[in-house]
Amino acid sequence: MYTKFGRVKPARYLFDEMPVRNEASWNTMMSGLVRVGLYEEAVDFFRKMCDLGIKTSSFVIASLVTACGRSGSMLSEGVQVHGFVAKSGFLSDVFVGTAILHLYGVYGLVSCSRKVFEEMPDRNVVSWTSLMVGYSDKGEPEEVIGIYKGMRVEGVEFNEHSMSLVISSCGLLKDESLGHQIIGHVIKSGLKSKLAVENSLVSMFGNLGNIDYAKYIFDHMSERDTISWNSIAAAYAQNGHCEESFWVFHLMRHFHDEVNSTTVSTLLSVLDHVDHQKWGSGIHGLVIKMGFDSVVCVCNTLLRMYSGAGRSEEAELVFKEMPAKDLISWNSLMACFVEDGRSVDALGLLCSMIRTGKSVSYVSFTSALAACFSLELLDKGRILHGLVVVTGLFDNQIIGNALVSMYGKIGEMSEARRVLLQMPRRDEVAWNALIGGYAEHEDPNKALTAFRTMRAEGVPANYITMVSVLGSCLMPGVLLEHGKPLHAYIVSAGFESDVHVKNSLITMYAKCGDLSSSQDLFNRLDDRNVITWNAMLAANAHHGHGEEVLKLVSKMRSFGLNLDEFSFTEGLSAAAKLAVLEEGQQLHGLAVKLGFEQDCFILNAAADMYNKCGEIGEVVKMLPPSINRSLPSWNILISAYGRHGYFEKVCETFHEMLEMGIKPGHVTFVSLLIACSHGGLVDQGLAYYDMITRDFGIKPAIEHCVCVIDLLGRSGRLAEAETFISKMPVKPNDLVWRSLLGSCKIHGDLDRGRKAAEHLTKLEPEDDSVYVLSSNMFATTGRWEDVESVRKEMDLKNIKKKQACSWVKLKDKVSTFGIGDRTHPQTLEIYAKLEDIKKLIKESGYVPDTSQALQDTDEEQKEHSLWNHSERLALAYALMSTPEGSTVRIFKNLRICGDCHSVYKFVSRVTGRRIVLRDQYRFHHFESGVCSCKDYW
DNA sequence: TTAGGGTTAG
After folding, report:
1. Strand A888-892 relative to strand A915-918: parallel, antiparallel, unpaired?
2. Per-residue pLDDT tens for A852-883?
3. What pLDDT was estimated at residue A878?
4. Most buried one in A241, A268, A751, A889, CB count within 10 A?
């Protein structure tokens, strides 16, 4: 009696005082100990019984085994009981056998469970169910379904618990046809109206992406518990219907009392792909208010929420303040660091896990391996590889994949291949990682060979395979041999309907130089997503079609598509290249409105746009304060100051950057050297050039060398420039000789100019610029017979000079002008305005520099031809079509002519207008008779 | 019976 009421003290007293005890007394006492949860004492008691040879009943043994499972830390005691049971023949009892297999399942030893299960002479539905529970808890739904099939073959009748397990496993496997099969079974079995079964059905349909069925079941349930509500909320959440999932939460609070931590976790998981700005901080507050901020799982989702929004600092804060952390918390933060590019922090986290003896799983290693993506981290990656082998995790499929991926990303392809070959099973992820590595680091042949081997091994390719293989064909010259055959394969294998594959095809054709095929694919695609549009933006940008990029961006907007970071970056950089401030400003405004203000790429693209549109004030205003400025931001700032002639600011900024501990990069030095070159700061430029290798260990690239040649050449130090070319660490290219030729033109050095021109023609026989530059060099020095011979050579080789043109953009209309153009509808007014300008500036001291006229004619003719220059026509048109006092913006496809430059200066003084001119190379910013380039360009 | 961490591409 006492044991039945849980009163163990009096029961124990009575037992101890009993003069005679029979089997029943011992068994009753032991059951009592189990009932009150004194499991360890029960096991000791049982040992004593065994020693004394007291018989026990199968019921008592089963309850004892169950107790060992329930305690969570009594596996070894359970195993001892198992040993006794095996010796005394109790295993043939179905209750005992089931209890033991359940015990092993609880401790994750499913193979032991299965062994016991297979040796059992009799099994009931609970035995089958217990086996399922083991696999389900281990996260192996395919095994659960295997057991389900076995049960059906043997004709076992299902109970509520086993049916629920089967249903949810089916959902996890996302196997729709199995789902339908199971539904039929559920209806026949008569278990359909059981609460747990209905809950599982809601959850299964959620996992299968069939939200309508999930909702139907939920709506028709006769009773609902918290799990039902949570399941429907999760169904909405998993399928991206975040508003609905919040609505469920709202209804729950009205119609159902309980909201538990699972509800909150579900809601938080939605915030991964929802507008973080709108919901994130509020939800965090709510979690604290409801007192769930101490539940590990809730905190983990909270952490994941910040991580998904790219806010690793906040995620870190959540982690630090968690009252209890589990393995998933550590792994989540590590993954967050990896996603945010904080590789060192991620690896540090793994180190402290190991150092403090925390448990580490294959997931921890997977994240750590993903952190090692660049050459500097190769050593760390190799150590991890060693650890993986030592800890016996090498055979884990996902670890193997992560290893191949790591070596692939770094470009250690022989290592990547070696790991792949050692893997017990090579799945498509492993092959894709290898192919991706080849695509990134080696030639297309390697990637294609790997693809063929993969197919020969019978591993089915998926869309990612196709995307990866296509990624190896992103260069001109491989279209016929590789690109087109791949496209043919894609069509025949049925991958063409996949939007990702189509996007990659668009990119492939564009990078192979066939933009019209990209355009074709794009036009024929009806399920375009943002990535499709982005691929098309990149395709046009790659071909230098900035206007088309902007047109596409505005189409995206008119179709109501959500522009993402990539679209904005691409749009802004197109606006920067075209120097169209208005479009750039609009895009930037929209990006800010949509919450992308903090995005590093967009921020830099916008700053660069303002920079290239001449709005230096805006650049300085918008860049983050120096304390958290990224390297690209510093580079943009240096370039901006250089572009506008603030050379002291250039040096100041560079030194500030060094003081902040930022290591300058390749681009920083390009910006610095260009600034020096434009400012005529020759010695300072040379000093910076020396710093590149001496102080920062960077190997000078061809761009840096071109800058130095420009620097020396423009200032007339042509002999030094020539010596520099002969000694520089990289092979001279066309830009080198073009720069030298340009300088020879400025300084009238005909001999060196000729030599440079010869080198240039060898490298670029089709290029018109060499002929134009030589011809201009001869013309400005009056060598008209040489001008004529260059012209004849051009005719002979059928090389056409690129026509100069200038344009003005007013509202949405672009007006373009060629030399002496008379096609504009307002031509008469334009030429009249030009006459006014001529008169006005001559009165204030303008004298034409006729050496800039490149024909051998008399002075008057020369002056006349200067007044036909496209940039003057554009200027006249712009002045007459824009309000008094406003800034005039003009573009030219080639370099501005020297005399036009002087005309612009005079006009800016006489009219008081600010004029901004973008030519092929740079920006000129005229105000009150002075140009920002200080006449040195 | 419901919720949280991982590998390939983008």
Report:
1. parallel
2. 766 767 778 888 888 999 999 999 999 999 99
3. 95
4. A268
Q: Is any atom of nucleic acid chain B found less than 7 Å from the CB of residue A326?
A: yes
Task: Give the nucleotide with minimal C1' distance to the Cα of A437.
Answer: B8
The predicted pLDDT at position A526 comes to 79
Which of A411, A412, A431, A432 minimizes the C-alpha distance to A421? A431
The answer to whether the predicted template modeling score (pTM) of the entire model surpasses 0.85 is no
To 10 degrees, what angle do helices A261-270 and A296-308 make?
Answer: 10
pLDDT at A937 (0 to 100): 66
Tell me if A325 is assigned to some domain: no
Residue span of the structural domain in which A824 resides: 806-931
**CA atoms within a 13 Å half-sphere pointing along the CA-CB vector of A444:** 20
> Is A409 (CB) below 7 Å from strand B?
yes
| pLDDT at res. A332 | 95
Indicate if CB(A685) is under 7 A from strand B. Answer: no
Interatomic CA–C1' length for residue A179 and nucleotide B7, angstroms: 27
Q: What's the start-to-end Cα distance of chain A, in Å?
A: 104
Does any domain span residue A477?
no
Q: CA of A862: how far to CAs of A774, A865, A869, in Å?
A: 19, 5, 11
- Of A423, A424, A431, A430, the C-alpha closest to A448 is A431
State, as a whole number of angstroms, the distance between the CA of A168 and the C1' of B3. Answer: 14
| Interatomic separation, CA of residue A533 and C1' of nucleotide B9, rounded (Å) | 17
Does residue A401 approach strand B to less than 7 Å at its CB? yes
What is the rounded distance in angstroms from the CA atom of residue A130 to the CA atom of residue A134? Answer: 6
Distance from C-alpha of A603 to C-alpha of A649, rounded to nearest angstrom: 21
Distance CA A442, CA A434 (A): 11
Whether any strand B atom is under 7 angstroms from the Cβ of A499: the reply reads no
Nucleic strand B within 7 A of Cβ A367: yes
Extract the runs of DSSP E, i.e. beta strands, from A617-707.
Answer: none
A845 within domain boundaries: yes
Amino acid at A244: E
Q: How far apart are CA A254 and CA A247, in angstroms?
A: 11
* Strand B contact with A472 (CB < 7 A): no
| The one-letter amino acid at A877 | Y
Q: How far apart are CA A197 and CA A204, in angstroms?
A: 10
| Number of separate domains in chain A | 1
Cβ of A532 less than 7 A from strand B: no
Is the C-beta atom of A340 closer than 7 angstroms to strand B?
no
Taking residue A897's Cβ as centre, other Cβ atoms within 10 Å add up to 22
Output the six-digit token pair for A579.
Answer: 């120097």
Round to whole Å and give the CA distance between A347 and A186. Answer: 48
- Name the residue with the least CA to C1' distance from nucleotide B6: A363
**Where on strand B do bases come within 7 A of a protein Cβ?**
1-10
Nucleic strand B within 7 A of Cβ A227: yes
Cα A232 to Cα A203: distance, rounded to the nearest angstrom: 7
Nucleic strand B under 7 Å from the C-beta of A529: no
> Which residue ranges of chain A lie beneath pLDDT 50?
none
**Domain contains A77:** no
Task: Give the pLDDT of residue A276.
Answer: 54
- pLDDT for A545 equals 86
